[in-house]
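Recap for those who missed Tuesday's class. We walked through two folding examples back to back. For each one, the amino acid string is listed first and its predicted structure tokens come directly after. Nothing is annotated here on purpose, so try labeling regions yourself before you check the end of the notes.
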Amino acid sequence: MQILEAEINLREETRVTQQAKSATEAKAYSQHAGELSSAQNKLDERVVALGGKIRDLPDGETEFAYEIGLLGKVSEVMSDATEILGRPETGGPAIAAETEAIELLLQSRRINPGGGGGGGANPGGGGGGKTLDSALALLGGGMNEKEVREDHGVSQSSGESGPALPEEYRAGLDEYFNKLDKSGGGQ
């Protein structure tokens, strides 16, 4: 799940980098794309290591053959993404490769509604059922069943306007306006 979350974050950072590309100097863009490529390579190494750990489990090759095969596919796609980002390219091909890796990672872990907590020789209660609910349902900060939400009616006292922009747009716009201010174009 940590690899999945890191890949999602990397894809978002790739999108932001692509959106800010026109406002970024070529050297800075290439350097940032190289950093993204390095981060993608580290995730690929983690996937390969995870596959090795699964193989090392008792009966890992037979019990987790599907997951091992899927992790092999994830590694291939992540290698492609590493290469694409290293060109440097943060547009459609890079984002598509990262998205494919995310989709494959989501396939590798399914929610088992019959499995409960617990440990011992058969952790999770050994539910034998399968479901098509993806691990996407597991993402997020979780739920607090005893949480009570209250609207206190507090709003900004100034500068309040329409809905806030998504984070990926804000970072790109901030960089754009900072560069515009530095070049004297904002006067």
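Example two. Treat it independently of the first, because the proteins are unrelated.
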Amino acid sequence: MAEILRNLKKDIRVEFRNPSALGTAISFACIITLAVSIVSAGIPFPPMIQAILLWIILFFSAMNALLHIFTREEEEHTALFLRLKISAESIYISKLIFNAAFFFFIEAVVCPVFIFFAGSSVKNPLLFVSTVIGGGLAIVSASTILSAMAAKAGGKGTLFTVISFPLLLPALLVSISTTAVSIESQDFIEYNNVFFLFAFSAAIIAISLLLFKYIWIEE
């Protein structure tokens, strides 16, 4: 726990020192949302189209924001120090917590902005919020381990996006369909889909904990 908190504190301090990733992700999401609003000319899109647009924005915001958590360690040559001083499991958990807090903050900014500019009317707020949290956790859980793989391979954003999309496709499809339901209907509740998103995240995290040390530690 001490190792996790120490590394998490270090990541937060470094991020506040240079918040370019956060600023880029939020700026990207807000610009795309504004562009969607201009294209719609004040006429709301159908719920399914709104849900697709929202998750496309969130997905590419994640691709812009979550890669740097490991590439920064490689670029600043601090990865070797972490390997020597902190266990691989502690590093993974601290990076996962940081990415989750980081991306949930992005969602907290982007979703209200999207709802306002896209003219959305969410009829089932509880289902909408649950889906955003569950889908966001699925994106974070997959992105954390994949960003470690991309960083070790010397890859940048393109490689990260290419390897992330196939893994995240089931979670994205479920998130889109459930978000559309939350926008369209007040009565019909699909909480089984929300449970799927959390189960998907739990499975990815469990597998990542088993595999991370083989990705992170050079032998």
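Answers for example two:
The two ends are 26 Å apart (CA to CA).
The chain has one domain: 2-216.
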